[in-house]
């Protein structure tokens, strides 16, 4: 063999193969174009580039089962049995043999950053026997990444008799699941990250089964979807983990909202919920101000100039403060027109409407919220002639004025709300705070809330064009929303790969060409992508121990995550406890006893827990 003709990476793989056989190729499988199947009688093969003379004749190599794909050219591709590498290197016309590397970015970058391949090798877990629930825009039931593992779809957007959890929507199984489609694509992409099965773009738990709820994105329907997934999984005697790559800021940001409370009530042994932290890390959606006794303070917020169909016709603010405080509030328009100060209204309607020269202002100041004992204020700004007017809200800098009537704590937290995909309101000035941007359902105490870590910023699209986004690689994603919660609760729990992750593309959705990576697969970024990464990892843990509690899972993630450059156990409101290290987790599991599982006709016993067997 003429080693000088062979590129270093292929030489290393060759040496490992000579020493250990096919097992020696395992570490190289993700980086080099190697094919080695234990169940196949075929010997390991390699995809390579060959550098040679432009007119070199290499057809005779076919006798050695070396398939050169071109008859001309100075750089050609070839497919050869690895054992014939020495023969190819001895060929006089061959100048260089270079391994074919995986260049198209997909889940290949992300798992490597968190040592997921090592986790799989060490634990041999795939999520088999576990249900992954996805509540989202639906799923492409025909996508090959989910073949044979999609159990049920509850499409809440279609007319039908509903299910036990709600008499709306339609439930499908078998071939009828094809009735439900995902024309948005978000749910299919999320499901692919958690559980897609594909040699190149596979998800974290490719052995898990899926139950999907196509939701209308109303909080109540999402809550119903959670109950539905856990109920069906229980009837199948399966553990389940539900992924919620969605969120909002209409709640108190302390886990006291209804959806968060339902998540806490529904979670338990073998019933885990994972949530996205949110993507508002770069957006000024949160303001915080301290108001003294007898004093007045101002929060500035800006409404942009807008026209036509995209005009801002509704703007809203959601504020919360201690039940021990009492404030009066007023709103001032860009032209200086101001509403009267409105105090807490304990009885009757707490909503008052004021017609200003530059728009209508609705202010709601009810008594303490019974769920958390705190005061909530809601500000809505509409165009002068009403919400349905074709005229946009007056643009410019508006002012929220707060006067301290009875102050003990004095802190007021306010979030911008929107009724569209575009931000209609942003805070400006000294009150802007880059904190407390995790709302429901990520605020739920039992939920595992996930931040996004950037593993890659460059990829090649389906036409081989290099694409790049302006993020810092190997760092927390700047768009990832930060905690803590308003009551001081520590969120998020953990960070996972969420930037430019390649996963399944719904055939019914549209995607810009730059994000299309291959047929049936697209790239995307967001904590929506980070959450299903952890969802898949939780599925692997549930395969090993189907009775894991949410707090136990959190403890495992906490103990095996770290912020780069910080001591283990350090918490940060952006990072949580840091980037997950799956290999460290695998080593911890190796030293822990695995619960004994006994399957009988009428029951399944896991450790000391006995579950009835249901069809």
Explain what the structure shows.
The chain is α+β, with helices and mostly antiparallel strands and 615 residues long. The protein has three domains: 3-99, Alpha-Beta Plaits (2-Layer Sandwich), CATH 3.30.70; 109-280 and 442-597, Rossmann fold; 286-428, Jelly Rolls (Sandwich). Helix content is 17%, strand content 28%. The chain is built from ten helices and 34 strands. The strands form eight sheets. Strands 6, 7, 8, 9, 10, 11, 22, 25 and 26 form a nine-stranded mixed β-sheet that branches. Strands 12-20-14-18-17-16 form a six-stranded antiparallel β-sheet, with no helix packed on it. Strands 1, 2, 3, 4 and 5 form a five-stranded antiparallel β-sheet that branches. Strand 23 (458-460) and strand 24 (466-468) form a beta hairpin. Helix 4 (116-123) packs parallel to helix 10 (582-591) and helix 5 packs parallel to helix 8. The relative contact order is 0.14. The model is unreliable at 102-109 and 604-615 (pLDDT under 50).
């Amino acid at each position: 063999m003429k080693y000088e003709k062979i590129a270093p990476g292929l030489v290393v793989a060759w040496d490992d193969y000579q020493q250990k056989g096919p097992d020696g190729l395992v570490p190289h499988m993700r980086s080099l174009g190697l094919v080695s199947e234990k169940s196949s009688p075929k010997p390991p093969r390699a995809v390579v580039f060959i550098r040679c003379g432009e007119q070199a004749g290499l057809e005779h190599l076919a006798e050695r089962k070396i398939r050169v794909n071109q008859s001309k050219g100075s750089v050609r591709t070839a497919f050869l049995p690895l054992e014939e590498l020495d023969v190819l290197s001895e060929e006089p016309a061959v100048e260089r043999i270079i391994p074919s590397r995986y260049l198209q970015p997909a889940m290949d970058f992300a798992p490597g950053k968190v040592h997921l391949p090592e986790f799989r090798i060490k634990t041999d877990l795939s999520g088999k026997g576990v249900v992954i629930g996805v509540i989202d825009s639906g799923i492409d039931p025909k996508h090959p990444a989910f073949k044979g593992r999609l159990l049920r779809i509850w499409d809440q957007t279609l007319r039908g008799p509903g299910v036990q959890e709600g008499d709306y929507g339609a439930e499908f199984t078998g071939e009828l699941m094809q009735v439900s489609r995902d024309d948005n694509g978000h749910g299919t992409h999320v499901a692919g990250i958690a559980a897609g099965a594909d040699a190149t773009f596979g998800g974290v738990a490719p052995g898990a089964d899926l139950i999907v709820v196509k939701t209308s994105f109303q909080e109540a329907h999402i809550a119903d979807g959670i109950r539905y997934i856990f109920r069906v999984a229980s009837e199948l005697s399966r553990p389940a983990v539900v992924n919620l790559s969605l969120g909002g800021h209409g709640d108190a940001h302390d886990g006291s909202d209804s959806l968060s409370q339902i998540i806490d009530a529904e979670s338990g042994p073998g019933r885990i919920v994972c949530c996205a932290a949110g993507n508002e890390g770069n957006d000024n959606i949160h303001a915080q101000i301290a108001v003294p006794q007898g004093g007045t303070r101002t929060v500035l917020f800006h409404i942009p100039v807008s026209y036509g169909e995209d005009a801002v016709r509704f703007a809203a603010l959601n504020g919360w403060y201690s039940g021990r405080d009492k404030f009066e509030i007023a709103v001032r328009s860009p032209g200086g027109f101001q509403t009267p100060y409105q105090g807490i209204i304990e009885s009757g309607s707490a909503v008052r409407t004021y017609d200003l020269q530059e728009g209508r202002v609705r202010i709601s100041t009810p008594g303490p919220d019974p769920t958390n004992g705190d005061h909530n204020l809601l500000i809505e700004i509409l165009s002068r002639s009403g919400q349905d007017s074709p005229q946009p809200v007056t643009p410019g800098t508006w002012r929220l004025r707060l006067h301290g009537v009875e102050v003990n704590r004095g802190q007021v937290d306010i979030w911008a709300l929107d009724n569209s995909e575009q931000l209609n309101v942003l805070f400006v000035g000294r009150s802007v705070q880059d904190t407390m941007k995790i709302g429901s359902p990520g605020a739920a105490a039992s939920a595992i809330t996930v931040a996004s870590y950037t593993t890659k910023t460059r990829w090649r699209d389906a036409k081989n064009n290099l694409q790049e986004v302006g993020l810092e690689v190997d760092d927390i994603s700047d768009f990832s929303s930060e905690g803590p919660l308003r009551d001081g609760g520590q969120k998020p729990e953990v960070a996972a790969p969420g930037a430019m992750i390649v996963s399944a593309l719904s055939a019914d959705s549209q995607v810009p060409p730059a994000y299309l990576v291959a047929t049936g697969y697209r790239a995307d970024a967001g904590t929506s992508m980070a959450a299903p990464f952890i969802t898949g990892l939780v599925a692997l843990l549930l395969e090993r121990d189907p009775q894991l509690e949410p707090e136990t899972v959190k403890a495992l993630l906490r103990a095996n995550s770290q912020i780069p450059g910080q001591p283990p156990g350090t918490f940060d409101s952006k990072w949580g406890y840091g980037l997950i290290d799956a290999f460290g987790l695998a080593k911890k599991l190796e030293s822990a006893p695995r619960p004994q599982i006994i399957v009988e006709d009428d029951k399944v016993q896991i450790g000391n827990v006995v579950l009835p067997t249901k069809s």
